[in-house]
Amino acid sequence: MSAPPFSVCVYCGSRPGVEPRHAEAARAVGQWIGQRGGQLVYGGGNAGLMGVVASATLAAGGTVVGVIPQALVDKEFAKRDCTELHIVGSMHERKQLMAERAGAFLALAGGIGTFEELFEVWTWRQLGYHDKPVGILDTGGYWQPMLAFLRSAVQAGFMNEWQMDLVRIGAEPAALLQALVDASRGPAAPQDFSQI
Question: What's the average model confidence in pLDDT over 68-77?
Fold first, then answer.
């Protein structure tokens, strides 16, 4: 089996959220990846937006790499029909493997787990551990309060504009995904997730 043309790690909620548009956005992301023969890398769960994006990717012809800690197999209902399902020992192993397998990162709506994963890969990029593109899909303005807070951190002198510029933000799945995939095909940059 030939390698997929691109790989996107998607962080998103293990809950569906109240508004249907979040599940619709997750479905659109999965369809876009699958229709182009791409690979989804994600947390391996079958619940909430996680299950929606994975199922949509598979249904559209893409491959899915799920990575889930043993402790969460039952809690997040591991998606057993992933193309590859890796059951690991810890959250650290999960995040390292996901980062290694991805060419780009995309955060959809989610809770504290999604926030933590987004901020981690964003921080890793700032520190030079990787140079893979990072994006936020801002469906229905979900991320706007957080982005406003981050802009206030810039104004307060705890962040710089260049740090904000390390993340691409968009409201339309196809355009944002295309930008991330295009950016991931640039010159290879060093990465070393083993030292994190």
Answer: 86
Question: Does residue 180 contact residue 148 with C-beta atoms inside 8 Å?
Answer: no
User: How many angstroms separate the CA atoms of 29 and 72, rounded?
Assistant: 24
At 168, which amino acid appears?
R
- CATH code where residue 169 lies: 3.40.50.450
Fill in the DSSP letter of residue 72. Answer: G
Residue 94: which of 115, 74, 113 has the closest Cα?
113
Q: How many domains does the chain have?
A: 1
Where in the sequence is the domain holding 129, given as residue range(s)?
7-186
In a domain, 14, yes or no: yes
Percent of the chain with pLDDT over 90: 89
User: Each residue of 34-63: pLDDT tens digit?
Assistant: 999 999 999 999 999 999 999 999 999 999
Length of the chain in residues, anyone?
A: 196
Scanning the chain, the segments in alpha helix (DSSP H) are: 20-35, 48-59, 91-101, 112-127, 144-155, 161-164, 173-184
Residue type for position 120: E
Can you tell me which residue has the tokens 């790499």?
A: 65
Q: What is the pTM of this model?
A: 0.94
Q: Write down the residue that tokens 């968009």 correspond to.
A: 170
Tell me what the pLDDT averaged over the chain comes to: 94
